[in-house]
Amino acid sequence: MELQVSTIENKIYEIRGRRVMLDFDLAEAYGIETRVLKQAVRRNIKRFEGEDFMFIVTSEELSRSQFVILNKGRGGNIKYLPFAFTDLGIAMLSSVLNSDAAIEVNRNIMRAFVAIREYILSRASESVEMAQLRERVLLLEQGQEENTRAINDLSEDTGKELDTIYDAIGALSAKAPKLDKNRIMIGYQRRDEQI
């Protein structure tokens, strides 16, 4: 039985902060009934102790939005709460369900978990790079704002200095002596002028 990794990825949920697959999806993948899978797990419960291997989903968790479609697809009634298996629990299932089909399905499931993990890690590194780029852009914007302020301050200072120069020129021209037309000029005289 060849189960596609993309099909498996669609059946991996996040519950209690862990990526898990539910017992009825696993039973379907293995080609067995859910009750057979649960019986095999109960007979070997020591292999699945701890939430890092397997846990029972609560009614509240089951009623959350990601399972609404899932519940309706199964007739709306789930008689028994499903087991949720982490990647470690699924690996342990291959020793409990000792068949070639179970081993092959487990290989594909492990590939799906690895693909999801790699995707998440790549997104995390992209997020770090984006944060670094945002920080650099903010620094550039702050530098640009500081440069603009400095230019504005410089323009303001230059404007004030020019105003001071114009005021000084105006004051000097107001104090400049006015030429008296009756005053005799000393110096060269033009020939056409008479004394």
Description of the molecule:
There is one protein chain. The chain has 195 residues and is α+β, with helices and mostly antiparallel strands. The chain has 7 helices and 4 strands; from the N terminus they run αββααβααβαα. The protein has a 4-stranded antiparallel beta sheet. β1 and β2 (18-22) form a beta hairpin. It is rod-shaped. 17% of the residues are buried. The mean pLDDT is 75.
Which descriptors would you attach to this protein?
4 strands, alpha+beta, 7 helices, 195 residues
Structural class: alpha+beta
How would you spell out the order of helices and strands? HEEHHEHHEHH
Termini gap? 131 Å
SS field, number of helical segments:
7
In helices, the fraction of residues equals: 55-70%
Number of strands: 4
Compute the gyration radius: what is it?
A: 43 Å
Q: Which overall shape is indicated by the principal axes computed on the Cα atoms? A: rod-shaped
Q: Flag low-confidence runs.
A: none
Strand content: 5-15%
Mean model confidence by pLDDT: 75
Largest sheet: 4 strands, antiparallel
* Strand arrangement in the largest pleated sheet: 1-2-4-3
